[in-house]
Amino acid sequence: MTSHPKPGARAERDALRTEMLTTGCTTAEICTEMRTRWTMRPREAWRHAHGWSLQDAANRINDLAAGRREVVAADASLLGKWEKWPSTAGRRPSLAVLALLADLYGCDVEALLDLEDRRALPESDLRILRRTSTAVTTDRPAAPHVAEPPPAVTGTETVLAAAAESATWAQWAETTNVGDIALEQLGADVRTLATEYLTGDAVELFRRARVLRDQVFRLLEGHQPPRQSADLYVSAGYLCGLLAWMSSDLGHMPAADTQGRTAWLCAEMAGHDGLRAWVASTRSKVAFWDGRLRDAITHARRGATYQPAGTVGALLACQEADAWSKLGAADETQNALRRAVAARESMSGGDDIGGIFSCPQARQENYAAGAHIRVGLYGDALEETTSALAHLAQQPVRAYGTEAQIHISRAMAHVGGGEAEGAMEALLPVLQLRPEQRLETVVGRMRDLGAMMASGPGSRGAASVAARTLLADWCMDSAPRHLALSSGDAGP
Q1: In which band, very low, low, confident or very high, does the pLDDT at 128 lie, cut at 50, 70 and 90?
Q2: 232, 221 in Cβ contact below 8 A?
């Protein structure tokens, strides 16, 4: 059976509008024809006569109001409710909104109202409309007899009109395009992504995080009470932080930095210290892998000033130690690592999100091992990797990136201690990682190991050369490399 579009469907409206414009009809005549054919309410008919969608018209009315420095925050949903009023699904437009719509559609306010509207309008609004209509009529020079000027609106009428306008605004202020259940679900979705990133495919999770971020952004472009806006900004901030973390793991540092700045803006808009701390941690990580070590320290210290709950305090101190060790500052490295231990011991509360936005003991020990290797404390690093692997085995979710880095640090500690055989044995679990799990942070550590082997004793021996060749080949078949090839960013 062939389906037919319902009367007044978009294709039918567009065809009628085109035909009438071709024959020289005005927009008002098109509006009248649409109302007659399809029993449209006047405000809806005027919009369709112009050929605009709800969102098109909402954008235009917002632009018109902004040019006049008037406060109107229309979206497609709210404009649709203005059109449906006075039905129960509608919302009464204020006189100021009606005036803006009239200017937008090129008609008088009266043309936007039918008898049903007038019956539902407050008497104070009707009086103002009658006086405004009379005033407009008397201003026309073609009238043979000029009527007396309309009397000024009385104090009582002004008070009543102002009260009606405030009531209308209060009705608008109570509207929202998102409910508390939806906000709760968004938070749950963010936590799920942050946890799944520890074990899942980085590229696929990046796509999912991007879709969810776009959903939150669209909600923020609508209207909701400040409390709900703050919750949306928190979700947006964590999602942009997650995208920043993922972008850097996939080797795109400038993109990661951009995501980090947007995440910071969201944290500021929400006024959320916990999010500020985690975004600072994310930006410190990006700066470290981008070679901006002083920036990494600055971000880590900035995050710590918010005295955050949960494990982020320990992570921020670890990240500062990471950057100091890369700079070769042994004393500063040790001081930062001591602060990491103190932060964990004095920790209050838990992590709001978890997953990548958490710092379990194994992750902290992984940072400490890497920092100690850079300052030449290979024995300490080896002990920390042993403890980290033991703690990791007790975790319900084992982050493959953290586990790989721990094994690489263990191999580096063996190389530093002159035990090349122990290094290759420690690397066996890492060499088995699938290419899509070989993130930039893991590949970078593997390159550091290769450089360390090249500068150590016996570097020219056949075994050392073969081992470094194996590592170099492994690094080439990585997640960033596959992403670059799939997007055409690199050649064969």
Answers
A1: confident
A2: no
Q: Furthest-apart CA pair in the chain: how many Å?
A: 111
Evaluate if residue 406 carries a pLDDT over 70.
Answer: yes
Topology classification of domain 360-484: 1.25.40
- pLDDT tens per residue across span 276-306: 999 999 999 999 999 999 999 999 999 999 9
Q: Delimit the domains of the chain by residue range.
A: 10-139+153-174, 176-327, 360-484
Whole-angstrom CA distances from 71 to 177, 299, 382, 433 are 18, 38, 63, 56
360-484 and 176-327 share a CATH fold = yes
Q: Give the orientation angle of helix 420-431 with respect to helix 440-455, to 10 degrees.
A: 160
pTM exceeds cut of 0.90: no
Contacts with 387 (C-beta within 8 Å, 6 or more apart), sequence order: 365
Cα–Cα distance for residue pair 163/278, rounded to 1 Å? 45
Query: Which residue, chain included where needed, has tokens 């006049």?
Result: 68
The amino acid occupying position 161 is A
> What whole-number distance in Å separates Cα of residue 223 and Cα of residue 91?
15
Cβ–Cβ < 8 Å for 312, 299: no
Which residues neighbour 354 within 8 Å (Cβ) at sequence distance 6 or greater? Answer: 191, 194, 195
Least Cα distance to 310 among 269, 355, 267 occurs for 355
Report how far Cα 382 is from the mean position of its chain's Cα atoms.
40
Closest to 377 measured CA to CA, from 400, 407, 409: 409
Position 277: which residue type?
A: A
b/e sequence 432-456, b meaning 16+ C-beta within 10 Å = ebeebbbbbbbbbbbebbbebbeee
Q: CA–CA separation, 319 vs 336, rounded Å? A: 8
47, HSE (Cβ side, Cα atoms, 13 Å) = 26
From residue 87, give the alpha-carbon distance in Å to each of 143, 173, 265, 402.
Answer: 39, 19, 40, 58
Sequence-separated (6 or more) residues with CB below 8 Å from residue 177: 75, 77, 219, 222, 223, 224
Does the domain at 176-327 match CATH 1.25.40.10? Answer given as yes
Residue with tokens 């906000």, as numbered in its chain? 183
Name the residue with higher pLDDT: 141 or 399: 399
Tell me the C-alpha distance between 316 and 337, whole Å: 10
User: Cα–chain-centroid distance for residue 126?
Assistant: 45
Give the integer Cα–Cα distance in Å for 196 and 403: 15
The angle at the Cα of 392, spanning 389 to 393, to the nearest 5 degrees, equals 90
Q: How far apart are CA 422 and CA 275, in angstroms?
A: 41
What 8-state DSSP symbol labels residue 357?
Answer: B
Residue 346 burial by Cβ neighbours in a 10 Å radius (0-12, 13-18, 19+) = exposed
d(CA 161, CA 442) in angstroms, rounded, equals 67
Q: Which amino acid is present at 387? A: S
